[in-house]
Design goal:
heterodimer; A: about 300 residues; alpha+beta; seven-stranded antiparallel sheet; 7 helices; about 30% strand; globular; disordered N terminus; B: about 600 residues; alpha/beta; twelve-stranded parallel sheet; 18 helices; about 25% helix
Amino acid sequence: MQAITWTGRILSRAIWNGINNYSTNCTEPSPPLKKFEPHILSVVSGFPKEISQNKLKKGQFGDDAWFTAKFKTADVLGVADGVGGWRNYGIDPGEFSSFLMRTCERLVTSGRFRSAEPANLLAHSYYELLENKQPVLGSSTACVVVLNRDTSTVYTANIGDSGFVIVRHGEVVHRSEEQQHYFNTPYQLSLPPPGHSRLVLNDRPESANTTNFRVQDGDVILLATDGVFDNVPDQILLNELKSVEGERDPLRLQSVANSIALMARKLAFDQTFMSPFAKAARANGINIIGGKPDDITVLLATVAM
Amino acid sequence: MVDFKNSWIDNGFAIKGVDDELIIEQYVQDALDFSSQYGSDISISYTAYNISGRPSKYPDYGDFPQAFVMRTYGKWWDEAPSRTVNIMPQNSGNIVSQDYIDVTFEQKVYPTKVSIYETYNPGSVVRISAGDGLGMWKTLWEGEPQCVGPSPRIFSPEIASIEFMTCLLRIEFDHHQLDYYTELDAILLVGSSSPRKKADVGKITAKIKGMTINTFNNEIDIANTLNSLSSLAQHYTALLEDINNEIESSCLVSCSGPFDLLPDETILRVLSFLDLASLSRCARVNRHFNRLATDTMLYTQLNLKPYWSCLNARALQTLSTRCQHLQKLDLSWCGNYAMITSPDIVEFIQGCGKLLTVIRLNSCKYVDNRCIQEIAITCRNLKELCLRNCFNITPDGFENLKNISTLERLDLYRTYIESPPLLKILEASPYLKHINLGSCVRVSSMDIVAQGLGQYNRQLVSVDFWKTYSLTPLGVRALSNCPNLEEVDLGWCLGVSIPGDCMSSLANGCPKLKKLFMAALRGITDRDLLPFLKCTPDLEQVDLLGVRSITPHMCLRFLTTFKSLRLFDISFCDQIQEELVEEWRLQFPNVSIKRSFQSDGVPSPFQHY
């Protein structure tokens, strides 16, 4: 019973978040008489892992953070997943990921980036952390997708186990590669507290995995943190994504994003489910079953050329 | 008052028709030029760039990286060993400006209101001017800096009306009364598409207010007063030319009354207290006064910075005839927007540069290699050269400076100097005492430079490495070869973050240290600070901002050990509790203990994600 009430609450929160985002996208002023131009239609949905303890902040789900921004002919989406282990050191892991995404957003809206170089955007944003008087400590995975409308190409940069999937005609045509040092330990950007630097994995922003891919009208792009990919099996994800190919209605797109997020949330707490995470664990000789409770962020976008 | 509804368009300005005129509200499009910034050019945190666009933090109050921050506050920089001596202070008048920023807007308007969003330590704005982009400037407002409480504010003073449309504003600042760095979030320019009506009472009142009768303190008064009181000249420039023409054509006999009886030396002594504008006015009295007021002995020191808004090439040319014995020249801020060109400077230096010992050309964008070459050839006794923000000088240009062997002070803040020419200059300057290499982002290895300083410039007193990323403990260790060092600024030298034993070397090698800035050297620990307690008893200013791991114990030892400590910045030192700081403030009333903060207040309604 209780479960239903909180599900309802978080669902409404998720929808609120999504609509917020949708409205910012839609109210962004454009000359009224201009013809339709290619763009990305994007919505967001997600859940923090610990719902009760978290203030809901814009652009954040627990330790996850996300942003969408555009500049001239580029639409940029990004997600980052703050590494939770820092909580033991008295550091809020969400701060790092959030700062990273907020800075990316500032850099994009001010045009201080090149659409073909998303890794540089991540790197610039990361170095901006060092320039803050208040040290923002922690670490995070990050994934950024840039759609250049002039060339119909998406440029991506990925560090760690967040990622993206591009679906066309019911098939995955392009997806990110997971970067892990070892099981459940993704590549990560980090700023450790002084004295801890040797104990901490610190991957250079330049080590981001970069790709580029030509997209077509109707392609669906899913950008999500590991809370989604670890819990929702690929086939189910694909079925959902298929249903919004070419979708132009932000509300319908939103409902699919919500259902992916909710599904991930449910499976994460299902202790009998053989999740992708459990499968990977078994492949590494760790005998577990069930989902992996985690923060969940879903950025869902369709390409309209 | 017009009611502005927020009908925002893409780039942040609103248009609303009121009767037949258009009222336009717009935020800054770009920060065109500025004299200093806390942040670095390779980053966006605390940089001038942040002033553009809508407010991102207001009404939050605190020390945020999303704001524009300048390099100084309070009187600390005037008390540091690296302070410079003001040339011709009488020129500055009551309103002194230390920093400026030039901002542009998308649409040209007749300004009716300027609102400055100050999100941290407000009150330092002293002047707002509007420019036409071609070198003409008009003051919209000026006033002394204000002491206001620690809360965010939108500063929008009553502004004077001007006769031309503008999309360029210059804001000037005086930080002397500030308790800490001021931070600016945005600037809103409200203007109309048609000039204010002539019968506007507000305009006349503003004009009267703007005129300070009988005190000719600065160029603004000159301009205003001349405009209204005299039909002879509009600008200082015109005034100068006018005099010359008049003198050539006049053949009047001198009749200065009792002044004729006084010896020239006495009158010259009196005149030497006058500011430049008054001198020029004296030169108009008669031949006798003209001869005296243009005497070269009155022009051994020339500070033109307060006249930046009206100084042009012709004025410089006119002045050059009087500057045969010129020793100190401050041309900072003057001549931008094509008012003065590189050949003008070259000509001036050729004519008047022989005896120059001090040249300040801060923020003079037109200064290029040719100027530097001429300075290196002509000024054989040059002791001080300030080239802050001079972007047009290439490494080849800087290389000329190796021909000067008398340099004692060299300020290269935010220039494009590189390591090889810099090393040659250091090698050629055995008397070098002060060097500022802050934000010199093109120096590929600051370590080699620091080693050069340790090797060639043993008399060094102050060195500023602010925001230079290539300095490592190796370079810091080399500085310990300079026993006279009194000031080291290692702020944001992130390469020194893990200092090893270099702080110990520095403390042991430089016992005279008075100012030690180590902002954001995150890896500094108590152990690194211990040697200073033993070796450098004269410390007066210490900045440990963001040095996360220092303990209250060490801070207390600093406060008790250094009897002459005056400034102690322990902002963002996480282990120091606020209560302790309060206690220390009572216990050590002579020390100004700084604690900055970033607070997450109520989310701003202006904030857009």
